[in-house]
Design goal:
Elements lengths: L9 E2 L10 E2 L7 E6 L2 E8 L1 H4 L5 H6 E6 L5 E5 L7 E10 L6 E11 L12 E2 L5 E3 L6 E7 L10
Antiparallel strand pairs: 1-2, 3-4, 3-9, 4-5, 5-6, 6-7, 7-8, 8-10, 8-11
């Protein structure tokens, strides 16, 4: 690979185009505080463009993703919520051994409940969802399981 005399001023690669130099640009980090049960945590916005190719476009079109700093999971929140008493959230977590990691994406339903048992929430809730809790009547739905032991026995692995 010839970087054309890269001097540290320009990035040597552009995503998807090896060998194409691009200029460095300024970045902006958007963070917010949220609650996970009785604990406070912080989330940082992850733009869709960074998740393209990792998650299906259908999911990226409907959910905005935030990285949770307390456990490094991704929380997906509806971009256009219905505004009713129910909201959907996604959680993407890495698990498994380092040499064979797995990513699970699970959908949970939330319901508006001002007097809920928020201490038991395992979903990070930003301020706009502060009066919501996990709807225990709606079981979690596993949307994706990428990699890990689930693929080990497959002839395609």
């Amino acid at each position: 690979f010839d970087d054309g005399g890269f001097d540290g001023e320009d990035a040597p690669l552009e995503r998807g185009h090896a060998g194409v130099a691009t200029e460095r640009t300024r970045t902006l980090e958007i963070s917010r505080s949220c609650a996970r049960g009785d604990r406070a945590t912080r989330q940082t916005y992850v733009p869709d463009r960074l998740l393209r190719g990792l998650l299906p476009d259908a999911i990226l079109e409907k959910f905005a993703f935030w990285r949770c700093h307390d456990d490094a999971s991704l929380g997906g929140y509806e971009k256009a919520p219905s505004g009713g008493d129910r909201q959907l959230v996604l959680t993407a977590r890495l698990s498994g051994p380092l040499d064979n990691p797995r990513c699970d994406v699970v959908r949970r339903a939330l319901r508006r409940d001002d007097a809920s048992n928020k201490d038991e929430n395992d979903v990070a809730l930003p301020d706009d969802l502060a009066n919501f809790s996990v709807d225990e009547a709606t079981p979690p739905l596993q949307l994706l399981r990428l990699g890990g032991a689930g693929a080990a026995g497959s002839p395609l692995a």
